Amino acid sequence: MYAERPSRMRGAVVWTREFEAPRPAGRAGPARQTGAEWPVLPDGCMDLLWTEGRLLVAGPDTRPYVPGGAPARWAGVRLPPGTAPALLGVPAHELRDRRVDLADLWPAARVRRLTARIDTAADPAGALETLAVERAAETQPPDPLLTEVAAALEAGRTVSATADSLGIGARTLHRRSRAAFGYGPKTLARILRLQRALRAGARGASPAEIASRTGYADQAHLTRELRALTGMTPGRLFRHREPLPSRAA
To answer: Tens of pLDDT along 185-203?
Structure first.
């Protein structure tokens, strides 16, 4: 069973998933099919993960990720686009399309102590959230300019209009976006548009309506983009998706 709630960290979400089969070897997330082959889809986020004796990080995805592994108990803190690198101390592009142990990024002894703390907590998800909050207090805040970039692209603005409004050159924007999001602003814009399409589909809109409402040139464009980013047609994707949680509504 999957459940989530807003985090004390602005824009973040705390989630849990328990004793379903199959269990993910990396990030779990909202509104994902319980069948073995349903993938985690790109969303622009990165997650701090805990599962029974392990702390991991799920980097930003650019393609569908198919979970696997034995049944297990999972908790996560999903961090909104551009916020995880400051907390982790690693540029996002180094973690793109990867699931890695936190001990590969932080001192192993520290990770062992943190893992033991969460393993023994009555509420592992709450303990994981506290870890993230404590770490955020130790680090510099996310780049505010990149936070504005993410907000503008989420609202459907073009990359060029976003760069012009912020007074930043295309090359500088691309370089800083790779560090913050894991990829350039055009890829982030495509992924955020995908998420808008998924939300519209979960509300029952037709593919033609989704295309017109969420920034695609036409239905054929929507279909090409969904195939590229999810590996699925609109029919399969929207027919089998579970309703999205309120966070994405």
So the answer is: 999 999 999 999 999 998 8
128 with 102: CB under 8 angstroms?
A: no
CATH 1.10.10.60: which residues of the chain? 144-248
As annotated, the residues of the chain forming the CATH 2.60.120 domain(s) are 2-138
CATH class of 144-248: mainly alpha
Alpha helices, DSSP H, located in 84-206: 84-88, 108-119, 124-138, 144-154, 159-166, 170-181, 185-202
CATH architecture of 2-138: Sandwich (2.60)
CB 169 within 8 Å of CB 75: no
Phi, psi of 100 (to 5 degrees): -130, 150
> Does the pTM of the predicted model rise above 0.85?
yes
pLDDT tens by residue, 64-104: 988 777 778 899 999 999 999 999 999 999 999 999 999 99
Ramachandran bin of 52, using left for φ above 0, alpha for ψ from -120 to 50, beta for the remaining angles: left
The candidate with the shortest Cα–Cα distance to 43, out of 146, 148, 224, 183, is 183
Both tokens of 113, joined, read 């102590």
